Amino acid sequence: MMIARLSLSICFLVVLIFLLGDHDGVNCLVASSNGNLRLNQVPFIFSHDAATGYLENNIVNRWAKTQSTTFAGQLDCGSRGFDLRPNALGNGGGVVMHHGDVIVHEQVHDAMVDVLNWTLANPNELVIIYVTDCEGDNCEGLVRDIFTNLTIPFISDCEALQNLTYVQAQAMAAKSNKGMPLAIFGCVDEQYDPSIECYLTTTQSSISNSTAEKVDVCYEPASRLVPLTKFWSYLVESTSIPLHTDDGMLWMAQAHWQYSVESVSIGLLHDSSILLDESKSKTNAMLVGNITSNAFKYANIVELDNVCDGGNKILTALRKVFLTGR
C-alpha cells in the first residue's frame, strides 16, 4: 500500500511538471489510466509530408515544401510522427522520399538516423513513422530492410493494432534500444477532404446575368471567413466521434490546407507558399485555442503543415485536454 501511494505521489509530481510544459508526463498520465488507453485514443502531432523539410528553400519548392526543417527539427518543434513517403529509385539510387511528383533527394536511411538520434536523446517519447505511398519496385521490402538494419520495430499487419494500448506500443518500440521509434505500414484512416483549400473560387451571377469568379483567401481580412469556416467545420466533424474502436486503426484529422492546381495558381499570384499560407492564416495558432476550449471531442493524429509554427504549444494543449481530462 505504501509503495502504491508513493508511486501515485510520484506520478502526481510528474503530471504537475507536465502541466507546466514538460512533455515527459504523458507516460505517467497514460499509466494512471491503468495503461488501458489504446494507441488510437492518445493524441499525436504528425508532420504532413514531413520529408519536404529536406527540400531547399527556393521558388520551385514553395508549393511542395510543407515543413521548414529536418525530421529531428520537426520533433524538436512538437511533431511525434511523420507520414514517410518512400521512393525506391533503382539502379543503385537507394530509397529516397517524395511529395507527389517531387523527389526529395534524402535517403530514408539517413532520415531515420536523424530520428534515432532524437529518440535516443528523448527516450520517454514514442515517435511513429507512418509509411505510406511507397513508390518503386519492392519499395516496402526495401524500407523494411532499412528498419531491420537500424533495429526500428515495425507493424505491417493492421490486425496487430486491434486493442493495442499505448503502453504496449511503447514496449514494442523500446525493443529498438534507441528510445521509442515505431514504424507502421499503412493502417491510418486519413479522413482526407480535398475541398479544404486556402483559395476558394466561387462563380457569382449578377443582375445582368453575367457571371464572375470570386476568390476567398484564407488570410485576407475581407474573405478569410469562408475558407476558415470550412477548415474548422471539417476538424470539428472529423473529431466528433471516436473512430476505429473495433479494429484499432489509427485515425487522423488533417489540420492543414489542401491544394489543387487551381489553388496553387492563385497562390502564385499572391506571391505566397504552403508555409506562408499556414502562418498568414494563423491556423496553427488558432488550433491551440480551439483545443483548449474543447472544440474537439476526440483526437488521435492531428496532422500539421509548418509544425515549427507553434507545434509544441499544440502538443501541450492536446495532452492536457485529452489525457488529464480522462
Q: What's this model, at a glance?
A:
This protein is α/β, with parallel strands linked by helices and 326 residues long. The protein is built from eleven helices and 13 strands.
Largest sheet: 4 strands, parallel
CA(first)-CA(last) distance: 24 Å
| Number of helices, counting only DSSP H or I runs of 4 residues or more | 11
Helicity, in percent? 25-40%
How would you classify the helix and strand content by structural class? alpha/beta
Rg value: 21 Å
What integer is the average pLDDT?
Answer: 90
Given the C-alpha coordinates, what overall shape results?
globular
What does the oligomeric state look like here? single chain
SS elements, strand count: 13
H and E string: HHEHEEEEHEHEHEEEEHEHHHEH
Low-confidence stretches: 1-19
Task: Walk across the major sheet and give the strand order.
Answer: 1-13-12-9
> What amount of the residues lies in strands?
15-25%
